[in-house]
Structures are given as C-alpha cells and as structure tokens.
Amino acid sequence: MKRQSPSSSSTGFTSSAPPAKKLKHRHYNNDYIKLGFTTSSDDPPKAVCFFCGDKLSNNSMKPSLLQRHLQRFHSQNADKPDAFYERKLSEFKASQTTMVQRSKIPQRALRASFDVARLVAQKKKPHSIAEELIAPAASILATVMIGQDAATAIASVPLSNDTIGRRIDEMAHDIIDNVVSQMSGHFALQLDESTDIGGEAQLLAFARFRTDTDIVENILFCKSLKDNTTGEAIFQLLDDFLSSHGLQWFQCHSVCTDGAAAMTGKHKGLMAKIRAQNNDVTWMHCIIHREALVAKQLSPPLNAVLAQCIKVINAIKSSPLQSRLFRKLCDDSGASYKQLLLHTEVRWLSRGRALQRILDLRDEVYQFLIGTSPTLVSCFDDAKWLLQLCYLVDIVGKLNDFNVSLQGVNSNVLFMMQKTCAFVAKVRFWKAQMITKNFCCFPNLESLVADAREQDVAQLMPVIDHHLDEMLRLFEKYFPSMNESREQYAWIENPFAVTEFVHCSLNSSVTESLIEVSHDENLKLFYRGHSITQFWSAVKREYAALAGIALNILLPFGSTYLCESTFSALCELKTKKRNRLNVENDLIVSSSTIAPRVENLCSLKTGNLSH
Fold first, then answer.
1. Which of 353, 394, 401, 567 is deepest in the core (most CB within 10 A)?
2. pTM value > 0.90
3. What is the Cα 366 distance to its own chain's centre?
4. If DSSP codes are grouped into helix, strand and coil, which group holds residue 265?
C-alpha cells in the first residue's frame, strides 16, 4: 500500500514543523570601553568602535572578538589608562552630535526655501527678489541681532531665481493634486476669461466641492487660450484639464460665468458644449454682473448729469498742469481732498466714487472752472442740475454698497439672493418715501433740498420716481422668481425658524427629517457657532437625504468674484517688465485656500549644504 505524504489533504492532517528557537541577543558590558567599544541604539544593539566608527554585529559582542579588533586595527591604543578610553569615547559622542546637527541643516534649509518661495508667490513679487533682497536682508539682520553663525546658516538656504521658480511650480502641482483628490463627488465651476497686459487671453477656473466637514472652493487653473476665445476653445481647454486629472463631466453640478455670448450661446457657447456632455448641469449668471447691469441703466436726465461730470473731470485731470493748479487751489482752500477721481465703465465702483468726489469739491471745482472752462461751469449754477447730482451720488453710492456686500469668498447663492431681496425692498421703501417728499434716505439730496426752491424739487420728483421704477423693473428682469426661490429654500438658511413645513417642497420622509432637525437643541447650538455649509455637513451624518438636498443648493457659485479678484492679482504679477511670464503656478500658490504639503515635498528631496 502506497503511503501518502503527510501534507496531503486526503489525510485531513497537516504536518507541524518543530518550533523555532528564540534567538539570544548579547548585551553590552561597560568593561568593553577598555577595548575601545561603545554600543549603538539599534535593536539588537551593536558594538561600535569609537576609534574608527566601525559597527560589529551583535554576535561579535564578545570580549575576544572585540580584543582582536583592537589589536589588529588600533594596537597603538591598547593597554592605555581608563581615562584615555573615557576621553576618546566623549570625543566620539561629540563628533556624532555634530554630524547629526550638520545633517539636519540641509533639511531645515530646504523647508525654509519652500516657505520663502510661497511668500514670494503670495506677495506677487519677482522670483529674483529672494536672492537679491530677502537673503541679504536676512543675513544682515541675523549678523546684527544674533551673530555670524546665524548668518552662515541663513546663507545655506537655496534662494536663487530658478530655485524659487521650481519651488513654486512644485507647490502649485501639489495643491492641484490635493484639490483633485478631494473632488471625488459633485463639484461646481466658476469660469471667466480676460486679456492680460501681454495681449494673451487667460481662462481662469475655480472649483467648489464638498468635504466631510464643509464646502471648499479653490483655484483650478489659469491657462492661456492660444487662438480664439470662442465657446469651443474654452470648452476644449476645460475638457482637457478635467480628463487629464481623471474628472468626469457627470460630476459637474453647475457652472457660473458672466453673460458673454461665448459662455452662454445656445449652439456654440460653452454651456451648449457642456450640456452635450451632461444635460443636468445648471448655469448661474453671476449675481454681481447682474447687479452691475441694473446699476448701469440711467434715465436720460441722470445720464446727462453723469456725462457733464465726466467732462468736468477730464477738463481738470487730462492735463498735468491743470491737475497741479487744482491741487494748489484745494490746498489753499483747506479742502478735505486734493484731486478728483477718474471714472471708467469697466470699474463699476468708480462711478460712485468719482461723483461723490465732485460733490465734495464742488466749490473748488466751480472756482477753478470759472477761470479755465467757462462753458462747463454753468451747470454748477443750475439748482435743478445740482439736485439731480445729489440724488445720483446717493443712489449710486447705495448701489456700490450693495455691490460690495455681494463680494467675498465662501458666499453661497442663498446669501446673495437674501441681499438682493433686501435691496429690492429698500428700493420700494425709497419710492414710498418719495411720495411724501421725505428725502431722509438720501442724505446729500436732503441737505440741498432744504435750501432749494419748491419748483426745482417738484421737477426732480418725476426723475427720481422714473429711475426707481426702472430699477425695480430691471431687478425683476435679471432676478426672476427671486422671492419665490428664497421662500422655497428658507429652511436651508435657518431650519429652526420654519413653521410651515408644507412650503418646503420636500417629500414626506425628508420633511419628517427636517422636523426632527428643527427640534434638535444640540444642532441648534451647533448652528449658532458655525457657517451654514458646516452645519449641513454635520447634519449629513445623521440625516443624509435632507442634508444632501441642502448641500446641493449651497454648492453652486453665486458669482465670479474669485475670478475677478484673481485677475487683479494677475495684473500685479504680469507687468510690462514681466509680460512673458507664465503666471499659472504663481497664481495657484498665491490664491489657493489649501496650503501645499511642504513636508511631503521636502521628504522627496535631499538637502545640499553646498547649494
């Protein structure tokens, strides 16, 4: 009969090997110092010769083997007094400490190099400033305040122009990799296109996405459009970026842009191309742009006042000599301001500031124009014109304040709609006040009306009434269904203030979850101390369906504020002297809300003292 192997499965048994013997480690003895050996911090410990630095294995930690090493390599040190060996051991330990300290210097210098490069990018300075200014200044400060040793250590930090450029590039790539890795779910996009000082069209993109604790927004890229700035070209650039980073169009929740044809065209616009990939993507027309469109419209009488003011400003500001003479006049009269301000259509807030400055310096302007431009001074003698100017200054100032309130980071659509509804309600209130000739809402106008003729005030009333009516009409045009949308999603803004749950447009199970949330005192305390996005991110852990609906409403961008403010940073980076600079990585590092993982970047490199 053939005998089966013990390991065969048919026997039902397995062979068991004899247990391995536990290895014994030798221990260091203090008497080994007399043989020229100390011990290492390894596990198991090893014998280290403090004459030459050689490491022997743990098995070699025997007196006979250590004695053999001493006689063979260091016979001149044999049979010395105990004090000799103790002195040599102390010198060896001191040299080891020095080597460890010197090995740490390059890593610290590497980290400092990254930190300085990030500072250069955030301050939007040329890369050469680190080597030409920061390093010499730091060396001087260290020498004077600390000592020469500190200056020597600072000199080891690599801060050349090319090094700073590489550091910024590495940090920018790390930031984008980190952002993309977090964009696993749905995300919203904010896009805008502008032309820099070098004549290149730059497309800027920001992304907004959900994390476990909040909704985060961060820059994605700033890339040049090589040829046309059509919807197809913009889509192709955007599609290439998403595909190269493993992002899919079905993840795109919404896109916020301005109202340009290249963005909104039904056939060849960007949104048409995006919806061909994902028909569920929603488009948001920038709320700040819409507000600017409303503020831009003026009735013919008010527009004539604005045109006359621009002529006055140009007559004084267009000539350096005229500007100097006007400044001297302001100095002599003790005016609060010394110059007028220019107005340009692309800078929306400049109109209100320029008009306010003309009103503040109207006496100085009148005196100056009498001697230089008699044809322009006549308007300042017209009481009706001055009343219209005062109203224009007040109403444009209020529109400017409204515009500024819509700006800012981490702003959501509901908050911006809340601000818009409030402003529209103010306009209706002003209109009601005008019926009773109560001008307290317009302080500049009120101060002038007190001394004005009743006939002039009567002629002003239809102008104001028409302008306010037109403003309400334009708000209704650019913000359709504004009040209905706000009422529908009021439960998102404050779930604890809802009393009529039937108006929330939610199904039964989700409404029941909302009722539970609205009566949860712990969540109410959390709501008071956190942002609305942080609140719903916390609610998601227990009420996933309800919080998911709320976060989807809060996810879209409400404006292109981030793009607009970053284009301002681009103007600082790309100047006439640096018009060929590729600004993308500098913009990413300077504008990112997510810090680069510098420790990881440093761990991939080796410090170099000689650099």
1. 394
2. no
3. 46
4. coil
